Every structure is written in structure tokens, then in C-alpha cells.
């Protein structure tokens, strides 16, 4: 049974939007600790762990459509796409909708949709360095990661490493996957990877998308 989610406090800290927009403009990425309401993180984390325990996740792959492949040597997480079926999911997705409006207002990005999935990394899993979108070939514009695991140990591994957009070998940030942390970056320009984790690691990965439809045909998500 899905736990109830208190809604008296905002899902994201109010100051997040201003700091996030400024960071995207200045450097192409943003990381904030204590940004997501911890009660919401707890509800989402419990939902994800329940799915993991009862085979309710799918092995993640690379590519999409006919080019989708399972490559454990590249990516080792399991996922479930958010579908608003729980109060916690709805609260998180509503917060992302508000952020989408703020990004469009401040940066004129024309974002029209947000897609997201739970991500569960078992011990030993990782995701090699990559871009979330290839320049000019896809419609993911801004990537987000919300971290859910409480009490992350200092030796837990599983950090997301962010690299410089002009020098993919230069590390510019290392994000500890602790509950409440929220990261955001430009999908086409910011290389990143997930280091091998020593503990079960839970998060929500998401993407704000532009409309790359042609000939009146809606460009599909995922």
C-alpha cells in the first residue's frame, strides 16, 4: 500500500528555481543539497524499493526504439517510468511541471513535456560516461536527477560525476546520491557518469523535452 504524502511543505525548496536557472546559464549544470522534501523522498524511495523487491522494475538499456539495447557493461540500473499512479509520483511530477514553467519563462526554451523514471542501482552497478542527448538529433533539453536514498554512507560510492562540456576528461563536480539532493544539467552538452555503487542506490532520472515533431507527427518520448 502506497504511504500517504504530506503536502504542507513544498516538494522543492522555493529558492531552487532562481539558483537553478542562474547555474544553467553560467555553467550548464546545477546541484543542490536538501532541495527535495525529505518526506516526499521517503515515500518515493519506499515505492521504488517495493517495486524492486517484487520484480516491478525493467532492466534499463541504451538507445530507444529499434536501437534499444541491454548492455550491462555500460549501464546496470533497473527502471520504472513514472505514471502518476501514486500520490508521491503526482507530487514530484507537479513540482517538475512548475519548474518547467519557470525554465520556459526565464530561458525561452519551449519545453513542452517532462518524462521521468525511477532508477535502482544494485551494489556493483554503474553507468559509463555519456550524454543524455546527441546535439541536433534528439529532443531532450534539460536532464534532472532527484536522489532518494536516506543516510548515504561516505564509502557508498555511486556518485554522479559531471564533466566539463568542452573537455570530457575534466571532472567539474561529484554528486553524492543522498536523499534530498537535486541535480539538473543541459542534456546535449554535459557528459556525466554514475560510479560503481556499493549500496542499493535509488533516484528519479528525468528530462524536459522540446517538440521535435515533423509533418504533424508527434515526436515520441523515451
From TrEMBL:
Keyword Iron part of the UniProt annotation: yes
This protein's record includes keyword Transport: no
GO MF, any single term: ferrous iron binding
Needed co-factor(s): L-ascorbate
UniProt xrefs under PROSITE patterns: FE2OG_OXY
Domain Fe2OG dioxygenase: 107-210
Single Gene Ontology BP annotation: cellular response to hypoxia
UniProt entry keywords in alphabetical sequence: Dioxygenase, Iron, Metal-binding, Oxidoreductase, Vitamin C
Pfam families: 2OG-FeII_Oxy_3
Gene3D superfamilies (UniProt xref): q2cbj1_9rhob like domain
Source superkingdom: Bacteria
Designated name of the protein: 2OG-Fe(II) oxygenase
Taxonomic lineage from the root: Bacteria, Pseudomonadati, Pseudomonadota, Gammaproteobacteria, Oceanospirillales
Amino acid at each position: 500500500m502506497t504511504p500517504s504524502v504530506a503536502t504542507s511543505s513544498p516538494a522543492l525548496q522555493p529558492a531552487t528555481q532562481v539558483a537553478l536557472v542562474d547555474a544553467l546559464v553560467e555553467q550548464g549544470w546545477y546541484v543542490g543539497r536538501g532541495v527535495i522534501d525529505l518526506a516526499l523522498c521517503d515515500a518515493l524511495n519506499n515505492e521504488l524499493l517495493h517495486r524492486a523487491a517484487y520484480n516491478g522494475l525493467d532492466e534499463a538499456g541504451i538507445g530507444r526504439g529499434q536501437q534499444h539495447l541491454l548492455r550491462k557493461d555500460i549501464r546496470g540500473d533497473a527502471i520504472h517510468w513514472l505514471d502518476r499512479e501514486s500520490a508521491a509520483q503526482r507530487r514530484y511530477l507537479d513540482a517538475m511541471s512548475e519548474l518547467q514553467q519557470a525554465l520556459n519563462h526565464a530561458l525561452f526554451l519551449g519545453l513542452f513535456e517532462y518524462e521521468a523514471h525511477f532508477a535502482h542501482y544494485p551494489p556493483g552497478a554503474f553507468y559509463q560516461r555519456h550524454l543524455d542527448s546527441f546535439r541536433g538529433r534528439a529532443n531532450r533539453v534539460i536532464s534532472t536527477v532527484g536522489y532518494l536514498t536516506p543516510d548515504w554512507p561516505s564509502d557508498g560510492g555511486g556518485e554522479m560525476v559531471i564533466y566539463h562540456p568542452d573537455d570530457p576528461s575534466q571532472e567539474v563536480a561529484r554528486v553524492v546520491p543522498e536523499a534530498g539532493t537535486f541535480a539538473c544539467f543541459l542534456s546535449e552538452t554535459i557528459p556525466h557518469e554514475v560510479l560503481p555503487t556499493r549500496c542499493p542506490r535509488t533516484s528519479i532520472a528525468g528530462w524536459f523535452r522540446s517538440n521535435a515533431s515533423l509533418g504533424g507527427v508527434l515526436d515520441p518520448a523515451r
